[in-house]
């Protein structure tokens, strides 16, 4: 226990010398893999030795704790910290598997309207003083929860699936993020055999519309569902291609020169798509 | 005689609310009912895409509420069925452009000349959820057999119970092989956790992605096994007692084995 405490003190000591990077993970559409991406990217970054804080901004519908298998260790949440009921250090839950990875859980029985945007910005700032990376898991939609999640971030990762509806929603979110951000794109749940048959948009199709810097491509694998249900992020494993894809994203994010994610070319659906992505504002 | 007003909701996004709304709506229309589908996801609409009607939008829900047009002018009739229409959401507005009271009035107007008004709720439990639920008298909660989706569904069922709204459950994207191998929760597990009445069980099907991208609901196509499943959900909504499809049918090798054993 003594050892743990020391480690906590080391990790959590505030320093303004070099502020960490605050990155929001968002999408517009729900169920495209924001939370899974946040958990795995956080795990992969921590494996590289970085100090990482994961913030669940989905007040009322939190899930990041489940995906990390930490649900029974959560005692306090973001709102407790914002309302100064507990100090930040006390609300952070240290991950089971990665000693430099911490979770700040969302309140489950409160509303998103109760989060004060200015206080959220200040909270992210104080996390940046303690961590190399602050990853903010944004709720679905573009309402108050989205605005609060985005407010404190300097960078944005948008997660999209190869579906017309997801692409449309991401396009809208990129517009709402505005010029303050240069969002990077993760394309999730690609099923190469469907792409080959022309029954799914390819990475190329998706990014022909979104035209964002491509950070990663993740295949659709049943093992993702299993790992979510078990609360063990896939990035912990060494034998899974999906895990490797997350590690590549972490390396790319850290500035390493990693080969580009696989891009398969397939010209399909484009005529139909062209008509309703008239341009973003 | 006023229409049934049913909201399709889930808490978690991406579990299939829009796909389910479109297909159940189309199945009801095929059975001769007058159906209006309302997209309550202001700012992130998608119901128009799933039905392939995105190019025909002239007016939207917010314009109806603001009195810029009659509700009838904003309705888009489906090209395949006269008795199916959608009221699209506005794409470039916020969810607070509409109040729950205004939403309730639009739904009541639509209900006067329809048999079913199905409301496609946005993800989450914020203003958009409150608006979508405001006009409804019944709810269908869509969930998938994942711990996170079930937790969100549980939260939403609690919110609906506060409004004393009857709730029925659709379990979407079941993969029988994963249930068998113990890697996925079964429908029984899900129903036990949520203790809600079951309306439908829908297996995971790759074709749904393709039909969604093409704007052709599976119910209106040929040959897909999901078609009869959506049709059965429609019949259950009509009050018929329809047995649930047994998804746990063995594959080819399973049948072969069974036959050998029986022989």
Quick structural overview:
With 281 residues, chain A is α/β, with parallel strands linked by helices. Helices cover 41% and strands 15% of the residues of chain A.
Q: End-to-end distance of chain B, in Å?
A: 58 Å
| CATH class group of chain B | Alpha Beta
Mean pLDDT of chain B: 93
What is the spatial order of strands in the main beta sheet of chain A?
3-4-2-5-1-6-7-8
Give a description of the structure.
The complex is a heterodimer of chains A (281) and B (263). Chain A has a single domain (19-263), classed as P-loop containing nucleotide triphosphate hydrolases (Rossmann fold, 3-Layer(aba) Sandwich), CATH 3.40.50.300. Chain A is 41% helix and 15% strand. Chain A is built from 13 helices and eight strands. Chain A has an eight-stranded mixed beta sheet with strand order 3-4-2-5-1-6-7-8, sandwiched between helices. Chain B is 41% helix and 16% strand. Chain B is built from twelve helices and eight strands. Chain B has an eight-stranded mixed beta sheet with strand order 3-4-2-5-1-6-7-8, sandwiched between helices. In chain B, strand 6 (138-143), helix 7 and strand 7 (167-174) form a beta-alpha-beta unit. Chain B is globular and about 55 Å long. Chains A and B meet through helix 8, helix 11 and helix 13 of A and helix 7 and helix 10 of B.
Spell out the key features of this protein.
heterodimer; A: 281 residues; alpha/beta; Rossmann fold; 8-stranded mixed β-sheet; 8 strands; 41% helix; globular; B: 263 residues; 12 helices
Which SSEs are present, and which pair or pack?
The complex is a heterodimer of chains A (about 280) and B (about 260).
Chain A: H1 2-12, E1 21-26, H2 34-47, E2 52-56, H3 64-67, H4 78-82, H5 88-91, E3 93-94, E4 101-104, H6 117-128, E5 133-137, H7 144-151, E6 155-160, H8 164-177, E7 184-190, H9 192-196, H10 203-210, E8 213-219, H11 222-230, H12 241-253, H13 270-276
Parallel strand pairs in A: 1-5, 1-6, 2-4, 2-5, 6-7, 7-8
Antiparallel strand pairs in A: 3-4
Chain B: E1 4-9, H1 17-30, E2 35-39, H2 47-50, H3 61-65, H4 71-74, E3 76-77, E4 84-87, H5 100-111, E5 116-120, H6 127-134, E6 138-143, H7 147-162, E7 167-174, H8 176-180, H9 187-194, E8 197-203, H10 207-214, H11 225-237, H12 252-262
Parallel strand pairs in B: 1-5, 1-6, 2-4, 2-5, 6-7, 7-8
Antiparallel strand pairs in B: 3-4
Helix pairs in contact in B: 1-11, 5-6
């Amino acid at each position: 226990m003594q050892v743990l405490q020391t480690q906590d003190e080391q990790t959590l000591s505030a320093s303004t010398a070099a502020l960490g990077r605050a990155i929001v993970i968002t999408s517009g559409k729900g169920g495209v893999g924001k939370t899974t991406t946040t958990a795995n990217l956080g795990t992969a970054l921590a494996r590289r030795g970085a100090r990482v804080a994961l913030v669940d901004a989905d007040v009322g519908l939190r899930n990041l704790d489940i995906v990390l298998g930490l649900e029974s260790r959560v005692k306090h949440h973001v709102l407790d910290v914002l309302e100064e009921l507990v100090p930040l250090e006390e609300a952070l839950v240290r991950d089971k598997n990665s000693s430099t990875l911490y979770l700040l859980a969302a309140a489950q029985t409160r509303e998103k309207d109760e989060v004060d945007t200015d206080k959220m910005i200040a909270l992210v700032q104080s996390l940046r003083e303690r961590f190399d990376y602050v990853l903010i898991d944004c709720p679905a939609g573009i309402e108050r929860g989205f605005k609060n999640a985005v407010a404190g971030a300097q960078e944005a990762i948008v997660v999209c699936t190869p579906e017309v509806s997801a692409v449309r929603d991401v396009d809208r979110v990129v517009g709402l993020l505005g010029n303050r951000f240069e969002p990077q794109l993760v394309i999730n749940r690609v099923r190469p055999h469907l792409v080959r048959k022309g029954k799914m948009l390819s990475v190329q199709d998706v990014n022909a519309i979104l035209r964002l810097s491509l950070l990663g491509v993740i295949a659709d694998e049943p093992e993702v569902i299993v790992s979510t249900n078990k609360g063990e992020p896939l990035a912990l494993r060494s034998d899974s291609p999906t895990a490797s894809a997350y590690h590549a994203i972490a390396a790319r994010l850290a500035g390493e020169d990693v080969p580009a994610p696989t891009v398969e070319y397939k010209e399909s659906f484009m005529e139909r798509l062209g008509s309703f992505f008239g341009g973003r504002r | 005689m006023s229409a049934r007003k049913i909201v399709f909701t889930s808490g978690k996004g991406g579990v299939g609310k829009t796909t389910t709304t479109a297909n159940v709506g189309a199945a009801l229309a095929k059975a001769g009912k007058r159906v209006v589908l309302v997209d309550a996801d202001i700012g992130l609409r998608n119901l128009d895409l799933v039905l392939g009607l995105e190019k025909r939008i002239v007016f939207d829900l917010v314009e109806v509420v603001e009195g810029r047009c009659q509700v009838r002018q904003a309705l888009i009739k489906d090209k395949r069925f006269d008795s199916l229409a959608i009221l699209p959401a506005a794409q470039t507005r916020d969810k607070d452009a509409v109040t729950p009271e205004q939403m309730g009035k639009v739904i009541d107007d639509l209900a006067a000349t329809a048999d079913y008004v199905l409301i496609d709720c946005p993800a989450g439990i914020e203003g958009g959820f409150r608006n979508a639920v405001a006009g409804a008298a019944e709810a269908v909660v869509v969930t998938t057999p994942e711990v996170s989706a079930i937790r969100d569904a549980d939260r939403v069922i609690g919110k609906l119970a506060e409004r004393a709204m009857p709730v029925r459950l659709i379990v979407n994207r079941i993969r029988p092989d994963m249930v068998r191998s113990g890697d996925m929760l079964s429908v029984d597990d899900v129903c036990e956790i949520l203790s809600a009445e079951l309306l439908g069980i829908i297996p995971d099907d790759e074709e749904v992605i393709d039909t969604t991208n093409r704007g052709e609901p599976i119910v209106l196509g040929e040959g897909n096994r999901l078609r009869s499943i959506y049709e059965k959900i429609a019949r259950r909504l009509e009050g018929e007692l329809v047995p649930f499809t047994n998804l746990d049918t063995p594959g080819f090798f399973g049948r072969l084995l069974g036959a050998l054993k029986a022989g």
